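Here is the promised in-class demo. Please do not try to memorize the tokens; focus on the logic of going from shape to residues.
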């Protein structure tokens, strides 16, 4: 099985504080509200590259999302364990949803009023194209390392 099939997998729990952040798609039909998230991550995997034309910057959230405009959302099952959601009107990518853990990697670009966000890690660095390199000083995990870390954090044995 190709590492790319695992898609976006983030092993670390995000630090959240009491406030909430709100994001929306280009056309505004979909609005998503989550507890404030200060750590962003980026996935360089081949599936994200194909999905969005480049690396996918995300804000992680575990648990349900508060969504307005649910009927505008289309979710594509990109694997047996995950789906990728987008707005059916404007095409904005909304989130990667790891179904078994109710884990959401939200498209960071939906939330543009978050000056405190910093990049915490890069995953699937082994699938990153050669034509760019991010200068951010972050941990860089291969797809295998990211998947192993996620399994360890979630107490799974396989
Ligand atoms: Zn990815
Ligand atoms: Zn939209």
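The designed amino acids, position by position:
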């Amino acid at each position: 099985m190709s590492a790319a099939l695992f898609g976006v997998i983030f092993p670390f729990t995000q630090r959240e504080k009491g406030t909430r952040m709100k994001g929306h798609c280009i056309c505004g039909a979909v609005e998503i509200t989550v507890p404030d998230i200060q750590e962003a991550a980026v996935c360089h995997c081949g599936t994200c590259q194909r999905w969005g034309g480049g690396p996918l910057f995300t804000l992680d959230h575990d648990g349900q999302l508060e969504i307005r405009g649910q009927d505008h959302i289309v979710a594509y099952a990109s694997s047996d364990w995950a789906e990728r959601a987008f707005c059916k009107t404007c095409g904005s990518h909304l989130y990667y949803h790891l179904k078994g853990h109710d884990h959401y990697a939200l498209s960071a670009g939906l939330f543009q009023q978050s000056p405190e966000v910093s990049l915490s890690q890069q995953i699937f660095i082994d699938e990153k194209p050669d034509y760019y390199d991010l200068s951010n000083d972050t941990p860089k995990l291969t797809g295998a390392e990211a998947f192993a870390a996620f399994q360890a954090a979630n107490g799974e044995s396989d």
